[in-house]
UniProtKB/TrEMBL annotation:
Residues 7-206 form the Deoxynucleoside kinase domain. This is Deoxyguanosine kinase. GO terms for molecular function: deoxyguanosine kinase activity. Keywords: Kinase, Transferase. Its EC number is 2.7.1.113. It holds the Pfam family dNK. InterPro entries: DCK/DGK, Deoxyribonucleoside_kinase, DNK_dom, P-loop_NTPase. It is an enzyme of class 2 (transferase).
Length: 207
């Protein structure tokens, strides 16, 4: 790979993105960028009433991730230094396409593209996929109050949306490498061999 490795770990809610990203950052000795979730002041309201609070929630995430991305690109990518993130900015479209409707969705799309179209995107994506039971188990373990009563249909739809999104990103050609991890059968936390295999694949993509 001729350009600076910019790695994003992605997948639906509860799949283990932050855990894997943190483990990879330690193993590969890379700086890490963590997404802001619990700091979003609209998140509890959103899960109580998605229709009313979706636009505020999504705009908060977009503006914060935009600032993080801007800082990350200037501090690392433009300096030729590899970096890993536990999200891809594209996730804003994945979620907003599901939560927003009509004119709000169209306004959001326009703002998203204005903010992000001229930024370098991650060129290595570690995509963790998993089924509903796996997600529910991991969501229960991390015990975030606002996630405990999450609509199962919302999660099922999110699983499908991520598959569609990854297929879309893959169409960008050889400039993006997507490494898919089966989160149902691969336990990178408890099984060191599983993690070592993932790390070796990422190292190979970085070289």
């Amino acid at each position: 790979m001729s350009h600076t490795p910019f790695i994003a770990v992605e997948g639906p809610i509860g799949v283990g993105k932050t855990t894997l990203a943190s483990m990879l950052a330690k193993e590969l000795k890379l700086p890490i960028v963590h997404e802001i979730v619990e700091e979003n002041p609209f998140i509890d309201k959103f899960y109580d009433n998605m229709e009313t609070w979706s636009f505020q929630l999504e705009m908060f995430f977009l503006c914060n991730r935009y600032k993080q991305l801007q800082d990350t690109i200037q501090a690392y990518i433009y300096q030729g230094k590899p970096v890993i993130s536990d999200y891809h900015i594209y996730k804003n479209l994945i979620f907003s396409e599901r939560t927003l409707q009509g004119s709000e969705r169209e306004k959001y799309r326009q703002i998203y593209h204005i903010l992000t179209d001229d930024f370098p995107s991650p060129n290595i994506i570690v995509y963790i996929k998993a089924d509903l039971n796996t997600l529910l188990s991991r969501i229960a373990k991390r015990n975030r109050s606002f996630e405990q009563d999450m609509d199962h249909q919302y999660l099922l739809q999110l699983i499908e949306d991520y598959e569609t999104a990854m297929n879309s990103l893959a169409q960008h050609g050889p400039s993006i490498h997507i490494l898919t991890i089966d989160g149902n059968s691969v336990d990178f936390v408890e099984n060191s061999q599983h993690f070592e295999h993932i790390a070796s694949q990422v190292k190979e993509l970085m070289s």
